[in-house]
Amino acid sequence: MTIKIAYLYYDLLNLNGENGNIKILKQQLEKQNIKVELVLLTTTDNIIGESYDLFYIGGGTENHLRIALKHLQKHQQTIHQAIENHKFFLVTGNSLELFGKKGIGIFDFEEQTAEKPFQEVILETDFVGKGIIGLLNQKKDIIETKYPFFKNSQQGIHYINFFAPKVFGPIFAKNPLFLEFFLKQLVLFKYPFFTFQPIEFEFEEMAYYNYQKLMHKKLVE
Amino acid sequence: MKRILILILTKIIAFILFKIQKNSDLPGLIALKLDRAIISYFTLPQNTIFVSGTNIKSAVANNIYQIYTKEGYNVAENAFSSNHYLGVLTYLIKNSNLFGKIKPNILVLKVDTLALENILSKLTPSHLIVTNLSREQSMITGHFEETFIKIKNNIKEPTKLILNADDPLVFSLSLHYKGNITYFGIENNFNNQNTTLDYDDNLDFLYCPICDTKLIYEKIFYNNIGHYHCPQNHYTRPTPQYPVTIDNQETCLINQQKIKLSEPVLYHVYNLAATYTLLKEQVLIDNEKIINHLNNIKDITIEKYQHHNKNFFFPPTKTTNPVSYYHILDYISKQKTPITLVIGYQRLSNEYIENDVSWLWDVKFELINNDYIKNIICLEKYAYDIALRLKYANFNPDRITIIKNEQKFLKNLDEYTSENIYFLTCDNLTKKFKKKGK
Ligand SMILES: [Zn+2]
Predict the structure, then answer these.
(1) Which of A46, B50, B93, B193 is 20 to 30 A distant from B395 in Cα terms?
(2) Domain B40-294: which CATH class?
């Protein structure tokens, strides 16, 4: 059994520890005795949608987003088809911009510049029982989307297997429940009868709990 | 209020704070409240060197200061105050006369990259050294590209830039600056050169700023630092004025002269390269004397203390961003004795209050996953986050101990540690451990 992951624009879009998502997913899949093929793709490569089970894109600087977009535009069809064909996507941080009206136009959300600062957030979703912890750049607000990722915020998109919470950083490190959910969906889509070993979270749960406590303290202060 | 009065008032406050032994940026804060542009009141000496960049600015500033002092110059350096805007302002208040003239003949200021914009917009140094521009710990204060733009927009002639040729982002300042620029850089690494970069190597800036094509690297020293060129030849690493060649673990060659290395680590070599280039540019000291001083410099001494038959080691720079961490882990990875590592943060630094520790994932802990690292103690507030990161750097959880409280750790030293303990801790904790060790 093999899961093939394409890390798109690994050399451009990788801010704020987002490579952690790859490290974590890879290790956890391997613990389930699933082979992981990680392919690093960038502007010098061709994207073949059928070849991969998951596309990962991290957040980046404005200039890097611009460079990545030039390349992604050439592969608009491929990417669109991959999304509609239920391929998995995980897009973190500001890279969701690439898929909006100002990007390759797959989703028709629009972003509006807002004078709000970065903020640490805990936001609710439909697919995991506990809130998702993350760092949000609120300088750009999504005005409206038909496919919100969060229940109580417009900051993100979830459509078929396209997951794009707009939070920066290693979302899997901070949110063990989301990791478990995502990993299982990814594997079951390809191998519907897969039996999972229990996923071990030695430190993840305590880190999550601890963060919630710190956030609460900050709010009280 | 008239600026002279502001200066008198804040000097008095600084004096009182000094008397009660409190080191604080309060004088700067008050001055700024009374006059937003007060910093432009100061007149810098003709020889004023700003040292900035993500890393090693303290070491370079200190080298320059030490050498000028030994040569008998009247020189000042903001070694003991913060390198943020208010820290620099406070420093200027303390070291100027009532007309804002800085008293010494040579001034060396290390300046945080975030403060550089506001300071450069009001003050023009004779030299500005930029060591490197890489990702910082916090996203909230902005990333390296934003920092770059702020510097680019505020440098002006006649400042002479002294830039790291091996950092492609730093080099791109040259595309926007008409003034004088000199480069420093190194020719090789200690051992085999890397030729590939992995996705977790902090890939900050790898594309030609002119045509957006991916740069080709002939040599990679670490992360995106090395020798590079645009395949379409728009953008090639400039040749440093005085390239540094590493001979072996003990010596390097600058301008055909041998210099002893106090430790075989890259950032020490970069310190030497930047210091030498600046001193040559300023032409105040003879070449022979510069070489002589550099041979006796100890800019990266690891501090060592004894406590309960244990050796406490403290790295020379703060572990506050992925690159400084890289250099320290690189150093530790070369040690051949059993080691206990202590990693802990109460708060990441005094400037930031957020709890986000995503940046730990940009630290390549994989570098030290060897048999000499016997165990790792994760301390304090972010202990679980650190442990989590280590787990995914393939450290077996058996080697990881979580202790939430540093007192408990100190009481049970024997239980937890091998003979040599390296501390990678925030300032607050480091202070406490150093006290124990003394
Ligand atoms: Zn080019």
Answers:
(1) B193
(2) alpha beta
